[in-house]
Amino acid sequence: MKISILIMNAYGMGGTIRATFNLADELSRRHEVEVVSVFRHRDTPFLPLSDRVTLSSLVDLRPETRKWWRFGVASRLKKPSTLMHPEERAYDNFSAESDRVLTRHLTDLRADVLVTTRAGLNIAAARLAPAGVTLIGQEHLHFGAHKPGILEEIRAWYPKLDAVVTLTDADHAAYAQMLEGSPTRVYTIGNGLPDGPRPQSRLDNRVVIAAGRLVRVKGYDRLLDAFAKVAEKRPDWKLRIYGQGTQADKLGRRARRLNLHNNVAFMGPTNDIEGELAKASIHVITSRFEGFGMTIVEAFAAGVPVVSFDCPQGPPEIITSGEDGLLVPDGDIDAFADALLSLMDDPEELRRLAENGRRTALRYRSSEVGDRWDEMFADLRHARTA
User: How far apart are CA 171 and CA 376, in angstroms?
Assistant: First the structure.
C-alpha cells in the first residue's frame, strides 16, 4: 500500500514534524511511504527522517532557487491564498503559488492513502483529492483552538474525508459529535516514540527544561513568571528553553526584566531533544493548550518527571498527576512554582515519578501506534467495500 503524508513544512522543527516523521518511519516498515512538504526553506530537514521514507516538496523557498523563478512565480508568491481559509492558523505562509502547486499535486495524486496533518490541508484534500484515495485528516490542534470561520469549513468539508484522527479522547468526542450522521469515522491515535534505547536522566543535574516553538500558545511568559519565584528560593537551579519563534525577543526582555539572566538560558533549536532531556531533572509544560504534548512522552521515556499546567487537551490525558508527573491548575503561577519547588526538595519523589513515567511511555511506542494505524486502514478498506 502506498501512503502519502502531506505536511506544511517538513524542514522546520516542532512537535507536529517530529510526530509525522516518527509515524512515517514506523509505517515505512510496513508500506511504501512518502512525505510531501508544501514548503521547503533549507537543503535538508532539521529533524532526522528514515531513509525508507521518500521526501519531496512543492514550493522551494531556498534563496539559491529564487534566481530561477519566472516572474509569474514571484508574483504569485506575493498574492494571498484563496485555497486556505484566512483563519487557518498558518494562513500567512500560503500564497497563490502554493494554491497552484497544491491543487495540481492533490488532483494528480497517485496513492492508496493520503494523510493530511492540519485543518487547511485536510479541507484541501477533501475538496481536491481524486476518488478512490482513502483520505485521513489528522488533527494536531485541539478542537477548541479553531476559530469560528474555519470551523464552519471543517463542518462543511470533513464529511468528505474517510476518517479524522485525533490525538486525545476529548477531541474524539468533539469531532464525533460534529460529524454525527456523516460517513466519516473518527479515531483516537496518539503520537508514537520510536522503539529502542534512548538516553536516560540521572536526575542529578539541577536543570529544568522546556522545549517548543517560542510562540504565545506555549506559555513561556507564564513559565518565566513561575521560574522567577523558584529562582528566589533555589538560585542554583537553571531553566533551559529550547526552540525558536516569533516571541524570542519578547521573552528575552521578560527574562531580563525578571532578573533571570543567571538562571534562564534560551538555547535555540535542537535536533536532539532526547539527549537534552537526559541532561535535565524536570520537564515543564506551560502551554495555554496542547493538541497532544509530544515532549511529555519523550521526557517520560528519558526518565524525567513532568510538571504541566492542566490545559486542554493533551497533558491531562497523558499525565496521571501524582503518579508520573504533576498537573497544576491552569494559569496558577504560584501553584506551578510550588510544584517545581516540591520536586526540587524531594529527590525520592522525583525518582518515583520518573520510574512511573518510563512505564507510561511504553504505551506510546511507535510499534503499537503503527499497529493502530494498520487496524484503522483495514477498517476503512472494509467500510469502502461493504
Answer: 17
